[in-house]
Please model this.
Amino acid sequence: MGMVAMTYKVNPDADMEDVDTSMIASTVQGLGDDTYNVQLVEIKPLAFGLKFVQVHVVMNDGEGLADAFEEKMSSISGVGEIEVISMGLL
Model:
């Protein structure tokens, strides 16, 4: 089975005020385990003082694994839309 490298853009929830992107970043970093190798989590500027969290993760190329990781991230308080920026086989 191959490996997949994915980069996500995790936007803060637009319905919440004062979302702590640092808390989101540290929580996402903690999602790493035997299945998901969270390699890099960065806080980047979005617009007008807003920020988003960029997540680089490597996982096995298995059915449903990417969706399961996205569900884990979306369950974090303050997380809004999650967008896949890039995906590639290793």
